Amino acid sequence: MADDAKRKARAGVKKAQAKFERTGNAHDEARLARREAFRSARNAGLTLREIGEAAGLHWSRIGDILGKK
Predict the structure, then answer these.
(1) Are 54 and 14 in contact (CB under 8 A)?
(2) Is 27:5 a contact under the CB 8 Å cutoff?
(3) Which residues have a Cβ under 8 Å from the Cβ of 38 and sit 6 or more positions away?
(4) Residue 60: CB partners within 8 Å, gap ≥ 6?
(5) Alpha-carbon distance 1 to 35, whole Å?
(6) Do 20 and 55 form a contact (C-beta atoms < 8 A)?
(7) Which of 19, 25, 30, 51 has the most CB atoms in a 10 Å sphere around its CB?
(8) Is the alpha carbon torsion for 36, 57, 46, 11 positive or negative?
(9) 12-66 per-position pLDDT tens digit
(10) Model confidence, pTM
């Protein structure tokens, strides 16, 4: 069950990151959707490194986006 939640969270992260990249870095709606996907992934049990891998970003950038270091 937890693995299924992690799989879905990874898919959500990938989708949100792709949308963010398509719309450009200045688009507020995409930025908020990405942050929410990252939060959901954390709540599903993914680490910052796992989220970063799914999004194609460094784990420290994920922490910056989520407001954590």
Answers:
(1) yes
(2) no
(3) 13, 16, 51, 55, 62, 65, 66
(4) 48, 69
(5) 24
(6) no
(7) 51
(8) positive
(9) 999 988 887 887 656 678 888 899 999 999 999 999 999 999 999 999 999 999 9
(10) 0.66
Per the CB < 8 A criterion, the answer to whether 21 and 34 are in contact is no
CA distance 44 to 27: 26
Tokens of 6: 């992690």
Tokens matching residue 39 = 């939060």
- Counting every residue, how long is the chain? 69
The stretches of 1-69 forming alpha helices (DSSP H) are 2-23, 28-43, 48-55, 59-66
